[in-house]
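Hey, quick one: can you model this chain's 3D structure?
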Amino acid sequence: MVTAGRPRKSSIDDAILRATAELIAERGYARLTVGAIIERAGTNKPAFYRRFQNVAEVVPHVLTSRHGTDTDIDTGTLIGDLIEVQRRQQHLFTDPVVTRGIVGWLAEVEADPEQGRPFLEHYLGPRRAYTRVIIERAVARGEIARVGDPPWIADLLTGPLLMRVVFPGMPPIDDALLVQTIRSTLNSLGHAGDRRALSALERGDSHRPTLGP
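Sure thing. Here's the predicted structure for all 213 residues.
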């Protein structure tokens, strides 16, 4: 995000993020323009460009404002953490901002990979890095014996959900899919402990874990 120039007003930041989210949900990402954003936000181009270099740079900040980066997750157990991660990813990947915007945004980033740098730095990077924290805590608690490959674990949790968003005609992101991704992750990490919380999720009668401090 651009920081040079006069001090920014947080109200304008919020208005731009809110306008971007609304427009993506209404029109999709491909039809999104700076002009449309500033009109909806009630601001102007100089204000926009003091904050962002382009429309693509707004996306990770919209996602962070709506879904966070998962770095507050700490339920006290590996399974609880993974369930909370996947619950949040379920919410993320069923958000109209994502379902209406991801294909157009990915096409733009593919055409110009530099457009994806803010997404990696501000949104995806912190989420993936926190996967290692979750795994290392589980090792310290004695739930698993090794750290394994945190980037692969992040892909294992996210890949199946992303696939169902991107490809037409795929089944919905439901609890059954969450269970499959978590079970595969636990198996990959060599987890042999209590999985009753996962069984409860599979039956559909589980509650969201209570986060720790």
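One thing worth noting: Residues 1-7, 208-213 have pLDDT under 50 and may be disordered.
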